[in-house]
Amino acid sequence: MRRFEATQLVSRLAGESPIVSNLGPTSSDLWHSGHRDRNFYTYGNMGLCSSIALGMAMGTDEQVISLDGDGSLLMNLGTVASIGREQPKNLTVIVWDNEKWGQTGGQTSHTGTGTDLEKVAQSCGISHTNTVTDLEDFEAAVSEALASSDGPHFIVAKIEESGGTTSVAPVEPELTLYRFRDTFVEPRKPGD
Ligand SMILES: Cc1ncc(C[n+]2csc(CCOP(=O)(O)OP(=O)(O)O)c2C)c(N)n1
Ligand SMILES: [Mg+2]
Hints:
Layout: H1 3-14, E1 19-21, H2 25-32, E2 39-41, H3 49-59, E3 64-69, H4 70-75, H5 78-86, E4 91-97, E5 100-101, E6 107-108, H6 117-123, E7 128-132, H7 135-147, E8 153-158, H8 173-182
The structure holds thiamine diphosphate and magnesium ion.
Residues 69-71, 98, 100-102, 109 line the site of magnesium ion (MG).
């Protein structure tokens, strides 16, 4: 399974739901899947994508999707424990697991040497978990997660390679923040 095709699928299934994306190619793939103001691209930081999504999920009733990376989530496994403790019903975490730190040279990550992130999630009390290796199973898992109100859901998506798109999305954190935040604000009417 290639991340770009899988990202396009998530974008299509998400409707208006907020999507938080991990740094680098994960955010570029999301941008190139069709930018929407409810995409919250993260830039530069590892380990915070699912933490940000957890905070969002706790602040809204809408479905929130996190597109994380194996290496980044491994840097902050405490996030998984916090998700297990808080049990946000509206949070779906998708981990793009290419078993490497792809964008910094392709060094093998812990998931390439035996760490099973699905089992980590289960041991943290997350009961809806999957590990999928092809697009068909991935679509089924994401559709089920987004249609349900019994999250959190945790989907490990094994991907073959890190790259999908070739060009990098614009790096504009301030604009990302303003555009994203604006989607939660009722437009002002004349006289307000
Ligand atoms: C705190 C921190 N440490 C190191 C880096 C350098 N770095 C940027 S991306 C990356 C690898 C990310 O791996 P993963 O989340 O698996 O994503 P992939 O590259 O495989 O898509 C590293 C080590 C960083 N940005 N932040
Ligand atoms: Mg990786």
